[in-house]
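Table S2 (continued). Query chain:
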Amino acid sequence: MKNKLKAGSILCIMLSILLMASLVSNVFAAPKATPKAKPQASPSKPAVAEKPAAEAPAKLVYVADIITVQGDGLKVKRVNSPNWMRGKVNMADYIKDVLETDGNTMACIEFLNGSQVALNKNTAVEIITSSQVSETSPQAEKVSKMIVKNGTAWAKIRGTGNDLKVQTGKGVLGVKGTEFIIESDPAQNTEKVTVLEGRVEYESGGKTETLNPGQEATVSGNNTVQVKNEDIKALRDALNLRFPNLDPAAQMIIGVFSAQLMGSMNAEVSNALSIANDTLSVVDNPESYLKDRISSEIGSRTGISVPNIFGGGGGQQEEKKPEAPKNLQPANQTLSTYYPKFTWDKVEKAKSYRVVMTRNPLEKDAKDPQFYMYAKTENNELVYPDYARALKPGMDYYWSVIPLGEDGKPIAPSSDPIKITMADYQTLGIKGLYPTGDVKPSSGEMVFDWTPVSGVTKYKVEVSNKQSMESPIVSKEVDSNFLVLDNASQYFSSGKDYFWKVTPVAGENGVPSINSVVNHFKAK
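Corresponding output:
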């Protein structure tokens, strides 16, 4: 009996221990069950879904190029990189890029449709879009919004259907195919919008003002808008005095007609503008230009004018009228190379030739040819220079040839503009936007930048001192369409030529079969 009581006591004790263990377990388990019993205040945003989108790499959508940099202080920050990069001519710009200039630098970017935005000193802008576009299509030009954070931006918007919203510190501008300037000074809490062409609807403080050419709107700290009217020519003259060479048309000319496009623009600005004006003059009225030129040249040496050089009375013997270059090739063709070879018939007495490429035909009274490339050659042929701006797949261009004399001035009319069309990306391959031409690698970083290809998720970048690309000195894979090479000077020697290419190595639907173009640069 005692043994049974003892066994019963042990059983009771064991049951008590199990019961307490169960209670303790329930107590500590209760908090873990609490979220199920008491859901969060915002059930549409569960904790597990808060951050996955932010962790995905940002897709770069190519929309513009840097076409001029005057100074050494242009910085660029991209959405998929935490670091700032030094901005260079020919470098690509993407949606959500931020560009900043310092107190000694001006720059200009050009969108794929030819629109330009010039940045004055101490200016910051951000490129934004409200809709996704294909980075390999001409529709990538559809940039719908920009932010001017501070400073002065001079914009020239081209084409129809390219409405633009510009956000500033004090308002929003609705721009419709126009030319305008924004001056934003957050420190003084003031803002000025000047319209030179088209129309701008400026909304600030809940009110909207429609600004027409010649009107300036000044906004003070209390958002009061004051509008005044000015004569267009006087207004342009005043702006050019306040912001020398900031005009996007001047920026475009400086970028194209300067001797070299790469690096800082310590270029001969006046010489670039002079060549452009000289080109337009001989195209607009070749007989008058050449007559005045020859009369001035002979008169300065002999004191005798030559009024009948192109024929007329006076008993003077007529000289043979110089003829424009003929048989330009390629003509009206689709080109499958980024470096086409241009040829034409020789012109009598020509010592060299000026080759000009534009977006619109370079012809008489052409108000907006949109210069794209300029080169000078002593031969009657030219391979598209690798220092020039990259030709864009699927786009049309026009090229013209002007014969020059010993002094580098035209001696005959320009050829008729010849149209060419670039093939698509799959035919042309991947083209490097930067670096090309002469480059000065710094002891810090060097950026390799190329045109993105739709569907490609990873690229291989190779750099070699041989055009055959044997034994590359740099071989790296990246998941974006640019490579930042640290301590670049350790790879490159001054005065040496280098070659580089980009190859797709991964894609959303497999690796696309696209040939790689071998790009070239020379270390200064």
